[in-house]
Amino acid sequence: MNNLAVHPIGKICSSENSTFIEVDKNYIPALQALDGFSHINVLWWFSDYDDEQSRSVLQTEQPYKGAPEIMGIFATRSPVRPNPIALTTAEIIRIDFERGVIQVAFIDANDNTPVLDIKPYTPSFDRVETPGVPAWCGQWPNSTEESGCFDWEKVFNF
């Protein structure tokens, strides 16, 4: 197997008031024609969990209420995984093309988290009309918009 090299293209900048993706100067030209898209898929690195112990976890005890007692890590959204890669669909508030800054409504990443890639959200590739989910998460919100006001504390066991 080949060794892979991944290089961040920027970082998350978040405060209580706003969240931004700050793109490194070398990658600013890659933002060309991103305007017009309402959402982006952001691939980012769970840098707080990039250690040997976190990367060795393959199963976890019931992270969600009502879920199976033991779950494989690939059946969770946990940051603890063999490769700490995360994916979030984020709504674009505005883009500063000169500075390489994208303001987003929300992203579940910490301040200074490395951003690996950005892709435009397109329904033809990213939306599933009738997704199937196990019964234990069937009552979760059906969209990112609904997730914002959902009481996630009722779902998680941590």
Automatic annotation (TrEMBL):
Keywords: Methyltransferase, S-adenosyl-L-methionine, Transferase. Belongs to the tRNA methyltransferase O family. Residues 6-130 form the TsaA-like domain. InterPro entries: TrmO-like_N (IPR023370), YaeB-like (IPR040372), YaeB-like_sf (IPR036413), YaeB_N_sf (IPR036414). It holds the Pfam family TrmO_N. The lineage of its organism: Bacteria, Bacillati, Bacillota, Clostridia, Lachnospirales. This is SAM-dependent methyltransferase. One of its GO terms (molecular function) is methyltransferase activity. Signal peptide: none annotated. GO terms for biological process: methylation. The keyword Methyltransferase applies. It comes from the Bacteria. Transmembrane segments: none annotated. PANTHER family: TRNA (ADENINE(37)-N6)-METHYLTRANSFERASE.
